[in-house]
Design brief:
Blueprint: E1 4-6, E2 33-37, E3 40-44, E4 50-56, E5 58-59, E6 67-71, E7 74-78, E8 84-90, E9 92-93, E10 100-105, E11 108-113, E12 118-125, E13 128-130, E14 138-142, E15 145-149, E16 155-161, E17 163-164, E18 172-175, E19 181-184, E20 190-196, E21 198-203, E22 206-211, E23 214-218, E24 224-230, E25 232-233, E26 241-245, E27 248-252, E28 258-264, E29 266-267, E30 275-280, E31 283-287, E32 290-294, E33 299-303, E34 309-312, E35 319-320, E36 327-331, E37 337-341, E38 346-348
Antiparallel strand pairs: 1-13, 2-3, 3-4, 5-6, 6-7, 7-8, 9-10, 10-11, 11-12, 14-15, 15-16, 17-18, 18-19, 19-20, 21-22, 22-23, 23-24, 25-26, 26-27, 27-28, 29-30, 30-33, 31-32, 33-34, 35-36, 36-37, 37-38
């Protein structure tokens, strides 16, 4: 799965993603975590010790031993010692994957290697782009339409699509000439005809599709295998998918059977046996004028595959991440971040 950047079009609701990072490209041995201290970003290890002092104006996680950082209004890359190895000269930069990464220079998208050398000169629009995924293709934009190039920069799928989700399991949901979503293969050929009002990527052999106002799931032939009866859904992960029914979320299996009854205000896909759920949405308070919701975050918890709460997250958070290597990122509405271990103990307090 590739990481897709959208500048103009917000195509995918947040619930569709457990994470935007490519897990296969993350550094798991001696993993480092970006933190902010007194307005500057640095990195800690899994014990919560600062190993790269906070000195950057922005930072993302390491992949392939390099991390994008921001200095002033420019972006470059550092190594795991904190040394700048690709000077900050880009307007935007994302994580490396398989030795190549998309960057933005003067509002044009190009691709560089680990030395900072251009492999594909910046010539594509910033409207929407992605890095190269396992398929060897990257999304580019020309004239406000999306297509795909190979690692030499050659266009292999013409930019004719007005919307594109990106690749997963060799297929890509797109909108072309009409208003309905369809699926194309790696040659750009239609393999599932336009029939859907919205569509997600395939995951574990199934893809969520919207017909009218309801969501269901299709297989790779385009056949409906779970009828559209849900208000919102996520992709399948670890044989389960989160679904919304009348404002509450639960989980179903691949036969459409309810496994965890709807009892949460929001829910994310399972990862490593756990899933994040919202127990209370924001903070409500009542006055003589009525009941109001204060938009300061949610009460979160992690559940197992029986629906049992195994860990409640302390306080009101905006977003909680998957546990990766035993550590999860906690984000707050005011911009603070923290990291907890699987006992719920903070290794980095959200200061």
């Amino acid at each position: 799965m590739m990481k897709i950047i959208r500048i103009v079009l917000l195509l995918i609701p947040l619930i569709f993603f457990a994470t935007l990072l490519m897990a296969a490209g993350q550094d798991q041995t001696g993993k480092l975590y970006p933190v902010r201290q007194q307005g500057k970003w640095g990195f800690i290890n899994r014990e919560g010790k600062i190993v790269i002092r906070p000195q950057f104006d922005g930072a993302e996680e390491f992949t392939e031993d390099l991390a994008p950082v921001q200095i002033g209004n420019k972006h470059g890359y550092i190594d795991r010692a904190g040394k700048i190895v690709i000077p900050p000269r880009f307007d935007q930069a994302i994580q490396f994957y398989k030795g190549i990464v998309a960057i933005v220079v003067n509002s044009k998208v190009g691709f560089i290697d680990r030395s900072g050398k251009f492999l594909i000169r910046p010539r594509f629009e910033r409207t929407g782009y992605s890095g190269f995924g396992d398929e060897g293709l990257a999304m580019i934009s020309i004239g406000g339409k999306f297509g795909y190039i190979d690692t030499t920069g050659q266009i292999v799928i013409k930019p004719i699509h007005s919307l594109s989700r990106g690749w997963s399991e060799g297929l890509n949901p797109v909108v072309s000439s009409g208003e309905k979503w369809l699926f194309i293969d790696l040659k750009g050929e239609t393999v599932i005809k336009p029939a859907f009002d919205d569509a997600q990527n395939f995951s574990e052999g199934l893809a969520a599709v919207q017909i009218g106002t309801k969501w269901g799931y299709i297989d790779k032939t385009g056949k409906l295998v779970i009828n559209p009866k849900f208000d919102m859904v996520t992709q399948f992960s670890e044989d389960l998918a989160a679904v919304e029914i009348q404002g509450m979320w639960g989980y179903i299996n691949k036969q459409g059977k309810s496994i965890i009854n709807p009892g949460f205000y929001n829910a994310w896909p399972f990862a490593n046996g756990l899933a994040q759920v919202v127990l209370e949405p924001n903070r409500q308070y009542t006055t003589p004028q009525g009941t109001f919701t204060e938009d300061v975050g949610h009460k979160w918890a992690y559940i197992d595959k029986t629906g049992k709460i195994v860990l409640k997250v302390e306080g009101l958070a905006d977003r909680v991440g998957d546990f990766i290597d035993g550590i999860a990122k906690i984000e707050f509405r005011d911009g603070r971040i923290g990291y907890i271990d699987q006992n719920g103990k903070y290794i980095w307090e959200p200061k």
